[in-house]
Design goal:
Layout lengths: L3 E4 L2 H10 L10 H6 L49 E9 L8 E16 L2 E13 L5 E12 L8
Antiparallel strand pairs: 1-3, 2-5, 3-4, 4-5
Length: about 160
């Protein structure tokens, strides 16, 4: 994800909260939210994960007319660099995400490290995404860590 706009809309926030099973009225009821300490509708803590739906280049989204590795399209449809697992997700909140915000994301590679296990070498890679508001202020920093196990024949490399 890099350089796309992500509008924080009330309906999207409500549906996200429902999807994660959070019935807190500050995510869906404007009157209750306005009367609460948060002062208006806000987004749940992990809401920026939904930003992928606004990224035109998101690799996990299907594209009409193209084979997609998640659609049982058969061998050879895994995107380049695919085949790993999502290992961790970390969020740093610089302020609350509010309905009405328009965030812009930028991503860059973070750290890479390895661990050796009984079954081989595990390679961990970090991706850091920053979400900024229209004033350019940092709102959320999301760190995603992926892991791949290298095949045994690559052990010596």
């Amino acid at each position: 994800m890099s350089g796309f706009r992500f509008p924080v809309e009330a309906g999207h926030v409500m549906l996200f909260a429902r999807a994660v099973g959070d019935d807190n009225p500050v995510y869906r009821d404007p009157e209750t939210a306005a009367a609460s300490e948060v002062g208006g509708l806000i987004a749940p803590p992990t809401f920026t994960a939904a930003a992928m739906q606004f990224d035109p280049d998101a690799p996990l989204r299907p594209r009409p007319g193209e084979k997609w590795f998640g659609s049982a399209s058969g061998p050879g449809t895994m995107p380049e660099g695919g085949g790993g697992l999502h290992a961790e997700q970390h969020y740093t909140y610089h302020r609350t995400v509010r309905v009405g915000d328009v965030l812009t994301s930028t991503s860059h590679p973070g750290e890479t490290w390895e661990k050796r296990g009984r079954s081989g070498r595990l390679v961990f890679t970090e991706n850091v995404t920053e979400f900024r508001d229209e004033a350019g202020e940092l709102v959320v920093t999301a760190r995603s860590v992926g892991v791949k196990q290298l095949p045994l024949e690559e052990e010596g490399s």
